[in-house]
Structures are given as C-alpha cells and as structure tokens.
Amino acid sequence: LLIEKEILWTHSYGCPILLSPLDVVVEYGASFSVNCSYSATHQFGLSWDGFDDTVEESEEIFRFVDKVTDWETNLTCYMSSNETQCSQDLPITIYKTPDSVFISTVNHRGPMTEGQQYELQCDVHNVAPVQNLTVKWYKGQTLLHQTNFTDTIETPVNETVTLLIRPDRADDGAEYWCEAELDLGAEGPQPHPTNSSKPLSIKQEILSKCKQMNMLYLSFSVLLFQLLQKFCFVETGLH
Q: Subcellular localization, per the record (predicted)?
C-alpha cells in the first residue's frame, strides 16, 4: 500500500525564512547580492526560485545577481522538507535616474511683461520608478512647488510638469530651475539621487509697465508734435 504524503505549501506568513537584506534597491544595470537562511531547529533544504536541482541542505544560501537588465527581476527563496515547503519573496526596486531634465517657457519667446502670467515647463526624460519621483521648482534657492506621482508603472517614463509665474521688477535677474528627485526609502541611496535642469534666467527680459508707458508717451508726443507742426504750417502759411 503506497501512501503519498501531502506537501503543505505556505508563503511568507509563518515561514521561518530570513532574507538579508529584507529588500533590495538597485540601479538598472548594477549588481546586488542577498542571503537566505532560516530560524528553524530542524534541517531543511533551501533553494532560489523553486528549482529542485539547486536545493542545498544548508542553513543559508547566497545569491549574487551580476547585472540587473530585466525590469521584472524577482527572486524567491524556498525552504523545503519531506512534508512542508514555504517561500519568501525578495522585494526588489529597480531605479533609473533621468537622462535629462530640461526647463522651458510655454508658447512664449522674447521679453516678459511685468504683471503678466507665463507658464514654465519641466521635462524629465527616462526615469523610473515614477511613483518615487518628485519634481521640484526653484527660484534661486527658494523652493516654489513640488509634484509627486502615483503611477505604479515600474519601467522608465517621461514626465512633464508646469509652473505658472507672474514676474515683477524683483524678478529681474532671477533664475528659475527644476529638479527631479528619486526618494527610494531607507534602503535606497542617501542622499537621494537628483538631476537638475540648467537655470532659466529672465534677467533683462522683463518689460516693465513704466517702460511701456514711457514708450507710449514718447510715441504720443512725437505724433502730437507732428500734428501741431502740420497745423501750424497750414494756419500760418509758413514755407
């Protein structure tokens, strides 16, 4: 009489597997390593990704990933005996800093007029993961605004954010710029990876209202002088 033993599968909860580190944050194209062990008193077999031919009768096994080039890279450590098997996933966050961060004005060229509203645009190219991205706007060293993202896509994306400004005389010589920051948590690189745009200077680009009035007054004065000159010429008969 052949009696088959039922293998009990469990995942994470109640499983004595210990991973070190508990999770991995790695830059795309870089390498990482992880150790898998267990806290049980009995002898178990350990393997990565459930391959039976790699089961080791050991209290710990080591895994080295030479180069991360797959955005869907994942690892699972399995612990097994004759009757039970459980597993623990290794959370892996793969990140990529932007190829470029660029600032520009939207639908505008040339001098800016004091008191009018303008739109600045920040383009962030090829960054991941976007849910860890923050785009910050600065005027000089003053933080003006920041934008976070909720998309859960893990592969690189392009993002565009805008900022409305209304320049005045105090902005003459001011520099606006934007910065892309990746906050990857405690396991990620410290300080946070950042990429910044070149500054957009509006120095001597603000045409003040006073200057506009002066130009208008000058034009009006010239026109008035021409009219008076013509009128006087007709009335007096001067040649």
A: Membrane
